[in-house]
Amino acid sequence: MPTKPNTDPVFSSGGQWLFIVPLGLMLFCTSCSGQSTEAPVRPGTSGPYLVVSLVEPASEFYPAAELLAQRHSAKIVNSGPADLERLMDELRNCAPAHVAIVVHPEDLDVNLVNRIFKLSTEVDADPFVDFAWGVITGRDGAAAKKLVLASEPGADRPAPSISMFGVGGAGLKESMTQKSQWPLRKGQLEVTSYLAKGESDQDRDTSFISESMPGLGQSSIVLMASHGYPDGLVAGPKASDLRQVDLSGCVLFNIACYTGVTKNWYDEDHREMKVRKNSIDLKDSFCLQAIDCGVAGYFAYTCPRPAGPTMMGDAILLSTTGDSLGELFREGLQSVVMAHLLNGDNQVNISPLAEGTSLGTDRTPGSVVRQMSTGGVLFGDPAFRPFPPMADADPRLLKWSEQGDTIAAEVRIESPLFHFFASDQVNYWEDYHPALRLECRLPIGKSRIENVDVISVPEAADDYRWVAAIEHSSNERFLRWKLNFRQPVDLSRLQKAATRGLSSQIEVDLSNGELADDKIIRGSGPGKENVRE
To answer: Nearest to residue 425, comparing CAs of 327, 310, 329?
Structure first.
């Protein structure tokens, strides 16, 4: 995240964002039976494909919309950025599983992204995201078409492996390249890490960056991690460093802030405590350069990104689950919705940004990251599935059973890299302290819910809070549940619990249910009562 003057109470004494890396877990199921079942978790989607063109048919970007429509036998709906909300009738009639949105780079900013996010939650009455979506754009029409062609079905694709470029900061004295394996529940992923020394653009290791760039495209997944701005990583690669790099067919995850910006972006002036609008030349946009390099998919943020390693977990899940890019992105957005519900909202809470808007004086780390949480974007065809599923590889497990009017579930993660899946980067404990999370998604059919009971929480949880709400998806009903608890100061307690697998158990009582589908259920409890007798 960007370095700023220390005039905002949200900032630490060093003048940088309070950079908290909490831990957590997300698990989902899509079917249920009378027998106890243990299975990897994949929510899945079903339904038609829809192309939304926010460019006019005469635009050089329109052939990208036509190419997607041909690929998926999909309808094209023409609109404009100002008329986005008028698409609701079409979305409700079509009930799409995947929506591709074609847009000029000058029209895409965090406000449009937030409006798309909000629109995606309003197709039905529940607060959750109703379709997987992705954005198609580029520096010009040819680049937008290149982004679509990069995910051409039937192309031979290598097995998943990861190249990661990170900036080590003051703690790294010399830049280095490392080979390692990230463990899965069964098997492992090959990872090549390029770690650059330097803390700012003034002392970045330009020679190492130049030497490392060609190696990124040798893996099917690329991760980038540092602070960031629209032109690239602080002390790391800029758009200009990517220009000779071939990333054809790769999926790129960028943890750095603002690296999803194509033209216009909003920064925070902490001296005046106001929002400032900025712009970047298209040629200097890291996002647009990544598209020029041939990526098949790109995950990034149009604003500062909440701290946390969840994109590393996303890279593992993309490698193992067989999900489409849009399904992976949609589940991330669902978790953002749950974070806002846990905070007391009834839906995702989004505020537009404009030049001169006041930042307010009552900000907390929690309130800041919740505002950031809605600015993520997937660039690319949301229906693209880059890899087949790996058997028994997903580190997340869900054991569940239905007996009479009760559904019992245990959510569990088995991996030494549990923190990759774990960051509760949107809900801090008491709005200031790092927290952990567990989430699950349970099918409930036509049953009404009487009660949700927390049976057990991880050993490291001293106090906890939770939220539950009902989701409608593909003519089915699900209960989404989230547990949040403070990360222990003594991390050895967490490590000890994690060696046995982080887990929690809940029971859902369906008998004589009287809770309406729009009811959001919240609760809390002390850790000393975390196991019901």
So the answer is: 310
Q: How far apart are CA 38 and CA 401, in angstroms?
A: 9
Cα(215)–Cα(202) distance, integer angstroms: 24
Most confidently modeled range among 100-104, 196-200, 387-391, 513-517: 100-104
Percent with pLDDT over 70 in the chain: 89
Alpha carbon 24 to chain centroid, angstroms: 14
Q: pTM for this one? A: 0.91
> In terms of C-beta density within 10 A (0-12 exposed, 13-18 middle, 19 or more buried), how is residue 156 classed?
exposed
Helices vs. strands in the chain: H and E counts, helices first: 11, 25
The answer to whether residues 42 and 317 touch, using CB atoms and an 8 Å cutoff, is no
Report the distance separating Cα 389 and Cα 321, nearest Å.
5
pLDDT category of residue 260 using cuts at 50, 70 and 90: very high
Which residues, other chains included, contact 319 with Cβ-Cβ below 8 Å and sequence gap of 6+? 160, 162, 189, 221, 387, 390, 393
Mean pLDDT of 312-332: 95
d(CA 150, CA 379): 12
The two structure tokens encoding residue 22: 């909490």
* CA distances (Å), origin 181, targets 146, 174, 316, 419, 496: 32, 22, 12, 16, 22
Token representation of residue 419: 């923190």
Sheet with 521-526, edge to edge strand ranges: 25-26, 435-443, 476-486, 463-473, 521-526
Q: For residue range 268-298, what is the model confidence (pLDDT) as tens digits?
A: 999 999 999 999 999 999 999 999 999 999 9
pLDDT the model gives residue 425:
87
Q: Smallest Cα–Cα separation from 449: which of 484, 475, 481? A: 481
**What is the number of other CB atoms lying within 10 angstroms of the CB of residue 299?**
27
Beta strands, E only, 170-216: 176-183, 188-197
| Other beta carbons within 10 Å of 416 | 12
Half-sphere exposure of 77 (CA within 13 A, CB side): 21
Interaxial angle between packed helices 310-321 and 325-342, expressed in degrees from 0 to 180 and rounded to the nearest 10: 140
Using only C-alpha atoms, the chain has a radius of gyration, in whole angstroms, of 22
pLDDT band at 438; cut points 50, 70, 90: confident
Record the tokens describing residue 129, joined without a space.
Answer: 């995201």
pLDDT at site 38? 53
Both structure tokens of 324: 């489409």
Q: Which domains does the chain have, with CATH numbers?
A: 25-41+394-529 (2.60.40), 47-388 (no CATH)
Half-sphere exposure of 392 (CA within 13 A, CB side): 2
Label each residue of 141-152 as H, E or C: HHHHHHHHHCCC
